[in-house]
């Protein structure tokens, strides 16, 4: 009995110890800071802009200790870049831009995002810079306009860098000279604030750092990291933001609908064309476009369709192909060089459309010139056999039928061959004798 009491007492003490330990671990887990890590390995466009700004605002709203943008980007649209920077600047929690993993880059617009962050950090063997504006508003930028654009971008990145206590001169070189530097030099020249191999190491290193100009103190040591990436739907939208794909979808859409209009009831071309056109228009809605390019593409497709109704001996097809190629090449000029349509894609689409139009026209010409296969006109030119003497009227046998016929050049005896020249009134065939015996259609 005494043994059982000791056993129960020992069991109770053990359970109490376990409960106390579990409660301590829970308390520590709840008190540990939370950090939202946003994985971003993409170009900067309206889709990715919505993703990044949404996650920064979510981290701010849900009380995370900090939000870290794991950045690897070649750059992107200036308009989308500025919206992301605005989200960084208005956040009430520290925003950390960490160029990672090793081998990543923060080029062009990515360098601006880093300069706007409360903490800018890089992993070893990464680089940052190359922020000279290109193809803004058109392929050929006049010298005065280019100077204004470059001055605007240089002043913007210098202001961002210096406000956050970083090297404004070198940041400005990113824009004016297209300079690009590695992670270690960026740390030595005060372009970034930290260098770390991975995210947990970075969070330990920047713990206790006070940011400029917000004056926030980072509390990131031992933080619980919550990682987030783009949703499936945003990935689909981002895939559609491909200039080459947009042009292909638009071409398929218009071609499919045109085929359905010319040949009602096929269903398949109209269905594929409608879906393709909607997806292409979705891409056009996301990216800034040149209206001149869009009009040229529309004009080119109009020329292709008109070729089927106007005899131009291929001139309209060539004009359509040229208009389509030029329009496709300048369609996304306002979006910058990252969104150029490939010359080969534009030429391939135009050549394919021209070939399809050419084949269709060739078939139409052959059909127009070929002998009718049904109806009364089918009899014209065929050879018939006389069954009742033609003097000048009688009966002939052709196509398995007896027809009334009238000879144009004198009487024709029974059994002779005659050629059908025309179908006269009251379905009387006008025939003429053949010089030599020919196989009769009958």
What do these coordinates show?
It is rod-shaped, with a radius of gyration of 39 Å. The N and C termini lie far apart (122 Å). β11 (393-398) and β12 form a beta hairpin. It is an alpha/beta fold. The chain folds into three domains: 27-235, 2-enoyl-CoA Hydratase, Chain A, domain 1 (Alpha-Beta Complex), CATH 3.90.226.10; 242-369, no CATH class; 376-433, Beta Barrel (OB fold (Dihydrolipoamide Acetyltransferase, E2P)). The strands form three sheets. A six-stranded parallel beta sheet has the order 8-5-3-2-1-9, with helices on both faces. The protein contains 14 helices and 14 strands.
Question: Which helices and strands occur, and which strands form pairs?
Answer:
Blueprint: H1 2-31, E1 34-41, H2 46-61, E2 66-72, H3 78-90, E3 95-99, E4 105-107, H4 109-116, E5 119-122, E6 127-129, H5 143-163, H6 168-176, E7 180-182, H7 183-188, E8 194-195, H8 199-206, E9 224-228, H9 232-240, H10 243-262, H11 268-286, H12 291-306, H13 315-330, H14 343-369, E10 383-388, E11 393-398, E12 401-407, E13 417-423, E14 429-433
Parallel strand pairs: 1-2, 1-9, 2-3, 3-5, 4-6, 5-8, 12-14
Antiparallel strand pairs: 6-7, 10-11, 10-13, 11-12, 13-14
Helix pairs in contact: 2-3, 3-4, 4-5, 5-6, 10-11, 10-14, 12-13, 13-14
